[in-house]
Amino acid sequence: MSDPSLSSAEIAQRAKSNLALALSCLPEERRRDMISFYAFCRVVDDIADSTTSSEAEKEKELAHWRRCVSEGFAPGHPVLDEVVTLPRKYGFPRAWLAEIVDGVSSDLTLVRYQTYDQLLAYCYKVASVVGLVSAEIFGATQPQSRDYAIKLGYALQLTNIIRDVGQDAQETGRIYLPLEDLQKFGVSEQDILEGKHSQRFIHLMDFEYVRAREMYDQAAKLLPKQDRDALLPARMMGQVYFEILEKLHQEKYPVFEKRCRLSAARKMWILVSYMLRSWIARCRR
After folding, report:
1. Rounded distance, CA 155 to CA 169, Å?
2. Which of 40, 145, 218, 238 is the most exposed place for a label (fewest CB within 10 A)?
3. Cα–Cα dist 101/96, whole Å
4. For residues 137 and 34, is the Cβ–Cβ distance under 8 A?
5. Which is nearest to 259 in space by CA: 169, 184, 151?
6. CA angle 44-50-55, nearest 5°?
7. What does R_g of the chain's alpha carbons equal in angstroms?
8. Dihedral of the CA atoms 14, 38, 163, 155 (nearest 10)?
9. CB neighbours of 179 closer than 8 A, spacing ≥ 6?
10. What DSSP designation does 258 have?
């Protein structure tokens, strides 16, 4: 169950997410609201992944969170108190928050995806909708920024899925890679669950890598010039995860041995370089 004693800031700090890096360039109020939104996403995800609650308990609590964000009320929970105010403040639908809860809830019952289209439907709810909400809080104004957020959300989530194949299989028994892809490359579910790093597995992961790369490329083409500064946090997150994807590809996907990360120094360089380029671009206008 979620801990109602923790504030959004405490939840974000404990998670040690790459998001803290990206949000450092935001004005204070927008940064505070993004931390509240991130805490909301973190809490509902933790509810679904809890190892101490029963499936019925998790379903009940997620249904409660969905009802709260859908109806705009928060019975004294610090994270809910903050997140339910965001749709009206930034002008986005409450249904977006509910969709995120729906996506996370699907992890309770769906542990396999037969097709890529089914996987993308899941990615849309747990990542692309997160991107849509984030773009509004960041201050994006162009309609095309929503298309950018959707594609980038797909790219980030596909990168997460590739990176976490081993961890998901070992800790939860979930396999997010489409079963039709496993069959295509001759990789069995048992191979994934047992952590077999074969040549067939590498070919499978190369196939998924290309799909993720295409999503990053599509997102980059959709980024409107008018919102480049507003979407700076999203662009930095995109760069971090793009480099994680490339590192996975170069190292032949050692996902059963370790969780691929960038060094703190590399992430700091991304932050500084993106902020510097943004500053130079503003000076030239």
Report:
1. 21
2. 218
3. 9
4. yes
5. 169
6. 90
7. 19
8. -160
9. 112, 113, 114, 115, 189
10. -
Asked if 8 contacts 38 with a C-beta cutoff of 8 angstroms, the reply is: yes
**Residue 194 near residue 175, CB atoms below 8 Å:** no
> pLDDT, tens digit, for every residue of 184-194?
999 999 999 99
Task: Supply φ then ψ for residue 257, to 5 degrees.
Answer: -105, -30
Q: Can you give the residue ranges of every domain in the chain?
A: 1-107, 110-285
Q: What percent of the chain has pLDDT over 90?
A: 78
Tokens of 7: 């504030």
Domain 110-285 is found in CATH 1.10.600.10: yes
Distances (CA, A) of 263 to 164, 169, 260: 18, 25, 10
How far, in Å, CA of 128 to CA of 138, rounded? 15
CA 58 to chain centre: 21
DSSP class of residue 9 equals H
Burial of 243 (0-12, 13-18, 19+ CB in 10 A): middle
Residue 1 pLDDT > 60 = no
Phi, psi of 75, rounded to the nearest 5 degrees: -75, 65
Calpha distance 40→8 (Å, rounded): 8
Residue 5, pLDDT above cutoff 60: no
| DSSP notation for 160-184 | HHHHTHHHHHHHH--B-S-HHHHHH
Q: Is 214 helix (H, G, I), strand (E, B) or coil?
A: helix
- H or E, element range at 90: helix 86-90
**How many Å apart are CA 172 and CA 166, to the nearest integer?**
10
Q: pLDDT digit string (tens) for 106-149? A: 999 999 999 999 999 999 999 999 999 999 999 999 999 999 99
Q: Is the dihedral of CA 161, 156, 163, 53 positive or negative?
A: negative
Indicate the SS3 state at residue 134: helix
Q: How far apart are CA 246 and CA 208, in angstroms?
A: 12
